[in-house]
Write a structure and sequence with these properties.
Largest sheet: 5 strands, antiparallel
CATH class of the largest domain: Alpha Beta
Strand order of the largest sheet: 1-2-3-5-4
Strand content: 15-25%
Low-confidence stretches: none
Oligomer: single chain
Helix content: 40-55%
CATH topology of the largest domain: Aminoglycoside 3'-phosphotransferase, Chain: A, domain 2
Distance between the termini: 61 Å
Mean pLDDT: 94
Radius of gyration: 21 Å
Shape: globular
Structural class: alpha+beta
Number of domains: 2
Bound molecules: adenosine-5'-diphosphate, magnesium ion
Length: 301
């Protein structure tokens, strides 16, 4: 029987197995070493999923990981209904559904936080989340070819600023990769599913509240309000200024995207295709810089 492809992520290929199940495998063509790492990771993921599933919170769905076949590098998992929760899908939903989504995300964060003890007062340098060497390389060797002095000096200052940010924060057990590819929504049943717990780890408390998903859907304020209403807050973060924490978190999300685009810029394109690719990346980076500047303005008021 031919397999029906569903989707792939950075590491995983997903095919339909029928009857509400999917099979997951490492991407085609990866080395044996990568396959071994992938399957090892799945065992850790299975544990994380079992933990969070055991909470049985009706506000969201976590597809169970049923079985891992080590020798075949395969995982059998329940299929989550619906589609990746993109901005377009979110905008097409009713107000009620949109509000429920904010509630469900906050519920997952609180449930995950409760699963493992909070680690108080960790001294934290936010730049550890970025590939700073790549970032510097992009600013110093790639951007001068396409960007003006004003843009370059802005990026230079931002690099130094991010490099200097340190705070003391509680660390809480977190999903860590809340993006539209890892959150599926079925509009018919209003069912929200969280998948891909491969990056679950301790993070600063702001990390999953102001996630890339919450940023793209513009709902991080709602997620935060829900979190606070339930008695938790960001105030354990001891930089004295929550506004600053939000600004830093948004900047990190955008800078990760900028570094990804910048890394793909080719300085001496030989093919027309590469030149077109460069032009697209430059336009994208320019858009990101505008957003970063906009965030600076909003949060310095
Ligand atoms: N249980 C599932 N049910 C339905 N679709 C899934 C399921 N797991 C993954 N997918 C789809 O496959 C994509 C990649 O899977 P994911 O586990 O996120 O892999 P990666 O670690 O490579 O990001 C997801 O973005 C999603 O669209
Ligand atoms: Mg994924």
């Amino acid at each position: 029987m031919a397999e029906t492809f569903i989707a792939h992520g950075r590491e995983t290929l997903v095919v339909d197995y029928g009857d509400g199940f999917v099979i997951k495998r490492p991407l085609d063509g990866v080395s044996l070493d990568k396959k071994m790492k992938w399957i090892c990771k799945q065992h850790a993921v299975q544990e994380t999923i079992a933990d969070i599933e055991s909470v049985k919170n009706p506000l969201y769905n976590i597809p169970s990981m049923i079985h891992i076949k080590d020798t075949e590098f395969q995982v059998l998992e329940q299929r989550a209904p619906g589609q990746p929760l993109t901005v377009d899908l979110y905008k097409s939903l009713s107000k009620r559904q949109q509000i429920e989504i904010g509630n469900s995300i906050a519920a997952l964060l609180m449930d995950m936080r409760e699963l493992k003890p909070v680690i108080p007062d960790v001294s934290y340098k936010i730049s550890t989340e970025l590939k700073m060497e790549k970032f510097w390389n992009i600013i110093s060797t790639k951007m001068p070819k396409w960007f003006n002095n004003e843009e370059l000096s802005y990026m230079d200052k931002l690099y130094s600023y991010i490099d200097s940010v340190k705070y003391i924060s509680p660390m809480v057990w977190s999903h860590s990769d809340l993006s539209s590819g890892n959150v599926l929504y079925d509009a018919q049943s209003s069912r929200l599913s969280f998948i891909d717990f491969a990056d679950a780890k301790y993070q600063t408390v702001d990390h999953d509240i102001i996630s890339p998903l919450a940023f793209d859907l513009e709902i991080y304020n709602d997620v935060y309000d829900n979190y606070v209403k339930s008695g938790y807050d960001l105030s354990g973060i001891n930089d004295g200024n929550i506004k600053q924490t939000v600004k830093n978190r948004l900047s990190i999300i955008l800078l990760k995207r900028l570094i990804k685009q910048g890394d793909d810029l080719r300085l001496n394109p030989k093919l027309e295709k590469t030149e077109i690719n460069n032009a697209n990346k430059v336009a994208c980076i320019r858009g990101i810089i505008e957003k970063l500047q906009c965030i600076d303005k909003t949060f310095s008021k």
